[in-house]
Design a protein that fits this description.
The structure is a single chain. By secondary structure, the protein is mainly α. It has one domain (15-338). The chain is 78% helix and 0% strand. The protein is globular. The relative contact order is 0.17.
Length: 342
């Protein structure tokens, strides 16, 4: 109980800090004026495009899950992604990342540990993909310098966050490779630390770790590795396309290529485990729009609030329909995820 209290205090404290800087100096009359001036047809198109990342993520996920179950159903993967991101959009701690594989494991009757291992791979490749795209953006600076001015401060911040993201993704890659290729030694070490626990319980934990490492087996399959890498670019280029359409609805003429660093920054903000990505996403989105594109702070604030609301409400609505058909609730899924947290 004390551990949970401390964790939630930190989470909500971070949320408050980010929201303070996000709302600082806001002129609500200007914000409302910008929101009212939205291009309705393009806005509706952005609503249609937004959920497509759930489908592209499901197609990518299937490349990993077929190693566990060759006939895994794409519809169940879509449902798992929808309910997982739905839980993340409502509750703190990003427990939706645990709910997604556990929900799929229940639907497909496959090993939970294996499914959990695939999520680690997914997050690792998400970071690598965006770091690569950001690297291309930074290297290509001389080609767009005359048409797209990026301040020295913004450029330095992008380089810093790019290095941090690449370092984190590299750490996950090295750790994953070590776990997989030194599987027996890893299990022996884990078993040693589990000795004080009751045999039945420690055996289940060890089995879960064994299944988890099994979820990394795609490292030995070059074909899967290549297709998974390519599909990761499809996922993130699709997400960039959504933002491109959305910002056009706010009458912002931003080039598709220029949105790469913006999406990278929002990914950093969304990774902060605040409730529904509130605070972190907002701060980094406003930071990107104002520093990268020189957009008025009130327009940046209004666009950020609306784009976040779209993502949360649309995802939660899709997840609600799925859960309604399943006869379950968000709170039951939340407990499913919390039960697996360390």
């Amino acid at each position: 109980m004390r551990k949970s209290w401390v964790r939630y205090t930190v989470i909500f404290g971070l949320t408050a800090v980010f929201l303070f800087f996000f709302f600082r100096g806001v002129n609500w009359d200007e914000v409302i004026r910008y929101v009212r001036g939205v291009n309705v047809p393009l806005f509706i198109l952005s609503l249609i495009v937004m959920p497509l990342h759930l489908l592209t993520r499901s197609l990518r996920w299937r490349y990993l899950m077929v190693h566990e179950k060759p006939d895994v159903k794409l519809v169940n993967m879509f449902r798992a992604n929808a309910v997982g991101f739905g839980v993340t959009s409502i509750f703190p701690g990003r427990i939706g990342e645990l709910v997604r594989p556990l929900y799929l494991a229940q639907k497909e009757n496959c090993r939970k540990g294996f499914a959990l291992g695939t999520i680690v791979v997914e997050r690792m490749f998400d970071m690598f993909t965006m770091c690569f795209l950001l690297g291309v953006f930074l290297v290509a600076r001389p080609l767009y310098a005359s048409r797209f001015q990026v301040s020295a401060e913004a450029h330095a911040n992008l380089r810093l966050w790019g290095i941090v993201g690449l370092a984190f993704a590299s750490f996950l890659l090295v750790l994953s490779l070590a776990l997989y290729f030194f599987r027996e030694k890893t299990l022996k070490i884990i078993g040693f630390f589990l000795r004080p626990l009751p045999p039945g319980f420690s055996g289940r934990i060890l089995g879960l770790f064994d299944d988890f490492i099994g979820g990394l087996k795609f490292f030995q399959d070059i074909k899967t590795l290549v297709f998974y890498t390519l599909s990761s670019f499809v996922v993130w280029l699709g997400i960039i396309f959504f933002y491109w359409v959305f910002f056009m609805s706010f009458r912002l003429s931003l080039s598709f290529f220029a949105l790469i660093p913006f999406v990278f920054l929002t990914m950093v903000g969304a990774s902060i485990p605040t409730p529904g990505m509130v605070g972190g996403f907002h701060y980094f989105s406003k930071l990107g729009l104002t520093q990268l594109f020189g957009i008025d702070a009130n327009l940046a604030l209004g666009a950020t609030i609306v784009v976040h609301a779209i993502q949360v409400l649309m995802t939660a609505l899709i997840a609600y329909v799925i859960l309604w058909k399943d006869g379950t609730t968000f709170f039951q899924l939340r407990r499913l995820g919390e039960d697996k947290q360390p």
